[in-house]
Design goal:
The complex is a heteropentamer, with 1 copy of chain A (about 260 residues), 2 copies of chain B (about 290 residues), 1 copy of chain C (about 260 residues) and 1 copy of chain D (about 325 residues). With about 260 residues, chain A is mostly helical. In chain A, about 85% of the residues lie in helices and about 0% in strands. Chain A is built from 11 helices and no strands. Chain A has helices at about 1-25, 35-45, 50-80, 85-95, 100-115, 115-140, 145-155, 160-195, 205-215, 215-245, 245-255. Chain C has a single domain (about 55-260), classed as MetI-like fold (Orthogonal Bundle), CATH 1.10.3720.10. The two termini of chain C are about 20 Å apart. Classes of the chains: A mainly alpha (about 260), B alpha/beta (about 290), C mainly alpha (about 260), D alpha/beta (about 325). At the B-C interface, loops of B face loops of C. Bound molecules: adenosine-5'-triphosphate (2 copies) and magnesium ion (2 copies). One adenosine-5'-triphosphate sits at the interface of chains E and B. Chain C: Keywords: Cell membrane, Membrane, Transmembrane, Transmembrane helix, Transport.
């Protein structure tokens, strides 16, 4: 509870600074409307069916994308993290692929995937896989060998060691990777909606329309705030899971 | 008696960036089925390394370990280990009970597993802590969880690395008797590394005395004490006292012979030189400081 | 050595497969690797000898982009690690700042471009801001996680010996968190290449990203692919350099290779 | 085509009015003024009258639209001529029998492509633009072409000018904080910038050599045109009506507020371009020529084979 | 003798999700300057918790600890601890020497630090391992590094939690003598938790016998043995043997009295009930299995 009030205080502080900044004559209110203006616009939007449909489209795509990224990256990370040969063999390819920006892939992706939601979900997954993958691999590197040895000595097979020792022990850090990936997914989804259009609606499309039509910054920021809130909600959910599933790590780590 | 476990010409050298370190020089011994062998030897001589090679976690650089007549290449079946670093060998995300159940998953159903775990935890006096997590336990309790886990597994070969180091004297006695009882009941072969000479005599059917680093066998003493041992009467017996003195003497004498002693000598000399050099460096630095400040 | 062969054999194999596939498909969107290599050659490596055979394009577009990339990543690393360690060690600070950071993290940079434009007037500054804002998060979050997970016994040991703050942070928290921080740095490094391209969507007349996007719009697919390959090469090289540092920094780790599958080896 | 039910009818331009082969059309659109006519035609039911159901799909410029066309994700798309020609010249759509142009969409008029500066700028005449930085929306596109052509017509060497890419919505801010010296804008941003910061016109980029230059139109693939001649013809007819009606301000203004999210005031101020009702090869050829001049095309390019002449109107 | 350390009415209860656990019931004792007090008590009774409260790592839920007359709120100055979980308390990224030097950085220059570390490592017999990393050492060697670190720090108050648990008998003797020597030289006040009754008698000026969980003081025995103690003669003396027996008796007797015993009884009953229930569950499940398979 106290954590929540503190968090709200933090956000409130940010809003106050934004409000002051927006109200000061430093920047024209047109480009940076203060939260009071954006808030009114936002409240209006929340009653707007079309806007809500956009939001729902984005949230659904987000959930799918996060699920897919984790589903792909965690097992892959377990394999790459535990079989050095595979890791070395794929390193060149992986390091080559990672820096390729989604933006550059858009036309090719459209060609292959079409303009539907598959496009943005694929691009989001492409971007979000990396933090999970790397966090999984690094967590495995930090795995206490004695835990593995203990399991091996009691006749535990490789696969089970992977899933009942390596995975739980790296779970805290993997979950951090998933939290990172969740917001990465959101950012890419909205950006692709924003840059590629199509993609079956979504928050990004709303922002693009608001921007490219006539530069309605109040609408843009309202949409952005909603993106932030979605990100916060997803992150909070994952943090809850983290607190429940891996309570042990915070105690063994943070006891002081 | 055919050998259950046999260690032949075993040697192990750890490779490190700054030169290799030979932990085990040359070890050969055998252990019969149902035997309890205690291993004693100075700190850092290579006892834990020996257990690691027997359990197949480390491939020895020389020689061979055979179990039931088969060379140990991977981790053999039917083996349990209580590690010296017990606290790190417990899974922090599992409760005490789940930790004990962990190795049983492969072979037993849910309820059988729970019963075994409950039984083993009762043996080591931790029934009431079964729901706690390892970090909520004291050091000695953690060690007992590790012991319970190994016992619940009912291995054919049980390796224990200083298993009672962190428990109080009274509990230690109880655990020693527990080990003897379990061993007798299930005909388990046991190898116990211990620093407590009394314990080695009390527990062992045989005592293996190792030399200082790198380890080699100094003596392999049979313990001829009557079978149902008792903490009070056995420890008071003359045979016990005599053996205890013998082991203590061997451990001191065993601190080096021949080649090994020569090598240790060299090591010590170089170490002494390092300490000497450090000291010289310090005086120099201090002299400089003094010169600078005056 | 074998690793080297392993790695490049797989890579070369994939390139060959790609060549064959594109040759069969004969699709203008997917030119053959040989064609791409040719484009790359004319774009960047056909310059005069006194410029090390680098073309003007390299000096006009590649180097400025690289500069911004490294600067952006460096700034993000600095902010991410220091802020992350501070937040990781202070539960209260994390409670205050956590939701706000999550909120900021979820904001897509393209939506913020107008705001950045206002706050950072000049082009390079704005691009830097975009890169920093985009790549900060993996470093920050992983640093928080790393700093938080310092083993309790180690922090108690430091407390007992009254280790001064600075030594505690530099000598205990940072080394303990180092593996996690490096995971973040590695993710971020590649991400900064991505954001370099994104940042060149607006307000530039030079840069790898802007070139790539122009090629894309002009349907000059070999050039566009050459750009993608260049990004890949840069990513690989930068990553390799970072790995060298990482190996050095984490050399204390017992046998980095000792993972579940290799216990017996 | 497998799914198109290949009729193998001769498609020599004017197909006889008949049943449309495909009733549901996915149409790529941008949320800008240029496509007002489509929205008019939808609103007034012109497509419905022809038996067509148009599903607008938001796209982002030609680079995204043409792959969409190629893989059949879009049936018809709006796009600027430069993109269509460049794509055709690079033979990007060779797998689908090339690109075909079916309707003209938008054509420049004076006051529509303006190079603006801030009110306190030292740039007073086109000549002052020499050596300055100008914001344009996309490199190598109609904006750059017309800007270069008109600069040259005003004796300014286009090579001395630095172009920087900014999306239209961001140009006003870039002008105001002097990130750029001038900005190449279109409506409704011109009206907005004039109203908000008192931006001043320096040069009309749709004048002189570029007076009335065609901007954008509607295209499809050769394959689609061949397999669906009646559909294309029906589309052409319906859109032509929309184009005609789009010239009428009172019809268009409320639509702008709706689909382009322009506020009412701005909507009442914007200058519209021309909405041509015919597709004319000579006119479009001007764009191709400009592209050749400024190096966007390597060879001479004939636009005529790309056109699918309208029928029945 | 004025008290250097005084513990008054100390109590500590750990809070956990599933109920609280009282580790220390009510402890009061004082330690004079330069005194060496040994603390013995059954496993899990709260000894480590006691050391944590004294070192200011844990704020006790009840009572007070005062050091030099000041209440301990944070971690006091001039204090060193050898943790029971020694392997976790070493910094894996520092070499042995650097580990020992680590706490000295605050107060000493580079060369003085190096000299101190070299000296302490020589004391514990690890001169030649100074360049190694903790994971390259055996368990006993790691423990000796932790001891060396604490000794090199030269604290006014030294807290040691089973510091010699992992070293062999011979090394243990040497380390005991080392501790006595260092204590005498630097007039250090020392609190040693140990499970070895002999050790407590040999080392201590006083022995504090604690009851089982939750801890309370069962006895506070002064050790009246002649000052320069000797591993052989001291241990053979009658006073030594008598005291040893006394401590052993107290530890057994101390296993509960009055209220505490009643509470333990209840605990044990509930634990027995759990084990019983588990067993019943198992028979039920087995019966079902049989029914299902037939
Ligand atoms: N991973 C390793 N790398 C390098 N050297 C090692 C490694 N593990 C152990 N050693 C060295 O091998 C020797 C034997 O170690 P081992 O752990 O087997 O000793 P031990 O007999 O178990 O000692 P203790 O009784 O102190 O636990 C030691 O000198 C140690 O420094
Ligand atoms: N963090 C914790 N949370 C909950 N309970 C704890 C915690 N730490 C210790 N305990 C409990 O407190 C009691 C005392 O623990 P402590 O570690 O002080 O025992 P100890 O006397 O040091 O035992 P040992 O000799 O086995 O090390 C134990 O029953 C233990 O379960
Ligand atoms: Mg050992
Ligand atoms: Mg303890």
């Amino acid at each position: 509870m106290r954590a929540l009030t503190r968090g709200l205080l933090g956000v409130a502080g940010f809003l106050v600074i934004w409000e002051l900044f927006g109200r000061s004559r430093l920047v024209p209110a047109e480009y940076l409307p203060p939260p009071s203006v954006v808030g009114v616009e936002l409240a209006r939007l929340l009653g707007d069916q079309a806007f809500l449909r956009d939001v729902i489209a984005t949230v659904l795509a987000l959930l799918i994308a996060v699920g897919l990224s984790a589903g792909i990256a965690v097992p892959l990370g377990l394999v790459l993290g535990s079989v050095p040969a595979v890791r070395h063999a794929t390193r060149a390819v992986v390091e080559f692929l990672r820096p390729i920006p989604s933006v550059a892939l858009i036309p090719l992706a459209i060609l292959v995937l079409g303009i539907g939601p598959e496009l943005k979900i694929t691009l989001a997954v492409y971007a979000a896989v990396w933090p999970i993958l790397f966090n999984t691999i690094y967590a495995l590197d930090e795995l206490d060998p004695l835990l593995v040895e203990t399991a091996r000595v009691f006749g535990t097979g490789r696969v089970r060691v992977l899933f009942s020792v390596a995975l739980p022990s790296s779970l805290p850090f993997v979950l951090t990777g998933i939290r990172l990936a969740a917001t990465t997914c959101l950012v890419v989804l909205v950006s692709v909606e924003l840059l590629a259009g199509g993609s079956g609606g979504g928050l990004g499309q709303f922002i693009m329309d608001a921007r490219s039509g006539a530069g309605r910054m109040d609408l843009v920021l309202a949409g952005t705030v909603v993106a932030g809130v979605i990100g916060f909600a997803v992150n909070e959910g994952l943090e809850r899971a983290q607190r429940r599933w891996v309570a042990w790590s915070t105690v063994t780590g943070g006891r002081s | 008696m055919t050998a259950m476990l046999s260690v032949a010409d075993l040697g192990h050298t750890y490779q490190a960036k700054d030169g290799a370190h030979t932990a085990i020089a040359d070890l050969s011994f055998t252990v019969g089925p149902g035997e309890l062998v205690c291993v004693v030897g100075p700190s850092g001589c290579g006892k834990s390394t020996l257990l690691r090679t027997i359990s197949g976690l480390v491939r020895p650089t020389r020689g061979e370990v055979t179990l039931h007549g088969n060379a140990v290449l991977g981790v053999p079946d039917d083996l349990a280990v209580v590690f010296q670093d017990y606290s790190r060998s417990l899974f922090p995300w599992l409760s005490v009970q789940k930790n004990v159940e962990f190795p049983l998953k492969r072979s037993l159903g849910r309820s059988a597993r729970r019963a075994r775990a409950a039984e083993a935890l009762e043996w080591v006096g931790l029934s009431k802590a079964h729901r706690k997590y390892p970090w909520q336990l004291s050091g000695g309790m953690q060690q007992r969880v590790a012991i319970a886990r190994a016992l619940a597994y009912r291995p054919a070969l049980l390796l224990m690395d200083e298993p009672f180091a962190s428990v109080d004297a009274q509990t230690r006695f109880e655990l020693e008797d527990l080990l003897l009882k379990v061993k007798a009941e299930h005909d388990t072969t046991v190898l116990v590394v211990t620093h407590d000479i009394d314990e080695s005599v009390y527990l062992g059917d045989r005592i293996l005395v190792l030399s200082g680093s790198p380890a080699s066998v100094v003596a392999d003493l049979p313990v001829r004490l009557p079978a149902p041992r008792d903490q009070i009467t056995t420890r008071e017996s003359d045979a016990f006292v005599g053996l205890r003195a013998e082991v203590a003497r061997l451990l001191n004498v065993g601190k080096g012979s021949g080649e090994v002693r020569a090598r240790r000598k060299a090591d010590e000399q170089s170490a002494a030189k390092w300490a000497e050099a450090e000291r010289a460096e310090v005086s120099r630095a201090e002299a400089e400081d003094r010169a600078a400040s005056s | 050595m074998t690793r080297f062969v392993q790695r490049w054999a797989v890579f070369a194999g994939l390139v060959v497969v790609w060549e064959l596939l594109t040759w069969v498909a004969d699709d203008p969107f997917f030119p053959r690797p040989t064609v791409i290599a040719e484009s790359a050659w004319t774009l960047w490596l056909s310059g005069p000898a006194d410029h090390l055979f680098l073309t003007d394009t390299v000096f006009e577009h590649v180097f400025p982009s690289l500069g911004r990339l490294l600067a952006g990543w460096g700034i993000a690393a600095l902010i991410g690690i220091s802020l992350g360690v501070a937040l990781g060690r202070s539960a209260a600070a994390m409670q205050y700042a956590g939701p706000l950071l999550t909120f900021l993290r979820s904001i897509p940079p393209p939506a913020l471009v107008p705001v950045f434009l206002l706050v950072f007037s000049v082009g390079t500054q704005m691009q830097l801001a975009t890169i920093v804002f985009g790549v900060l998060w993996p470093i920050l979050l992983n640093s928080v996680d790393g700093a938080r997970s310092v083993d309790a016994t180690k922090s108690e040991t430091s407390a007992v010996f009254r280790i001064p703050k600075a030594q505690w942070v530099l000598g205990v928290v940072l080394p303990a968190a180092a593996p996690k921080i490096f995971a973040g740095l590695r993710v971020s490094l590649s991400l900064s290449l991505v954001l370099m391209v994104v940042s060149e969507l607006v307000g530039t007349d030079n840069g790898i990203g802007s070139q790539l996007l122009v090629a894309q719009r002009e349907f000059d697919f070999p050039d566009m692919w050459a750009g993608i390959v260049l990004l890949g090469v840069l990513g690989y090289v930068l990553n390799t350099v970072l790995l060298v540092f990482e190996r050095r920094a984490l050399s204390w780790q017992p046998k980095r290779e000792r993972t579940p599958a290799t216990v017996e080896a | 085509g497998l799914l198109g039910g290949s009729t193998d009818k001769p498609t020599d331009g004017a197909a006889a009015p008949g049943k449309v082969e495909k009733t549901k059309i996915k149409l790529g659109l941008l949320p800008i003024l240029d496509v007002a006519s489509v929205h008019v035609a939808i609103k007034k039911g012109y497509f419905k009258d022809e038996g067509l159901e148009v599903e607008p799909v938001s796209i982002q410029g030609g680079a995204a639209a043409i792959p969409g066309l190629v893989n059949g994700e879009l049936d018809i798309t709006f796009g600027n001529w430069v993109s269509f020609f460049a794509a055709q010249a690079k033979d990007v759509a060779k797998g689908v029998d090339g690109l075909k142009l079916i309707n003209d969409g938008y054509q420049a008029k004076p006051e529509m492509f303006l190079i603006l500066t801030g009110p306190d700028s030292t740039i007073k005449s086109p000549k002052d633009l020499a050596g300055k930085t100008i914001a344009i929306n996309t490199f190598k596109n109609i904006a750059e072409l017309t800007a270069k052509a008109t600069l040259e017509a005003n004796d300014v060497d286009p090579k001395s000018v630095t172009f920087k890419e900014f999306p239209f919505p961001d140009m006003q801010a870039a002008l105001q904080n002097k990130t750029v010296d001038a900005a190449f804008m279109v409506e409704p941003f011109i009206s907005k910038a004039q109203r908000a910061i008192g931006a001043i016109t320096v040069l009309d980029a749709a004048s002189g050599p570029t007076d009335g230059i065609p901007v954008a139109g509607y295209g499809t693939t050769g394959k689609f045109a061949k397999e669906n001649p009646n559909t294309v013809a029906a589309f052409q007819r319906a859109l032509t009506k929309g184009q005609r009606d789009a010239a009428d301000r009172p019809t268009v203004e409320p639509l702008l507020v709706e689909y382009a999210k322009v506020d009412k005031e701005t909507a009442s101020l914007v200058h519209f371009g021309e909405f041509p009702t015919t597709l004319d090869a000579t006119r479009l050829q001007r764009v191709a020529t400009l592209m050749k001049t400024y190096g966007l095309l390597e060879k001479d390019f004939d636009v005529k084979p790309m056109l699918v002449a309208a029928s029945g109107s």
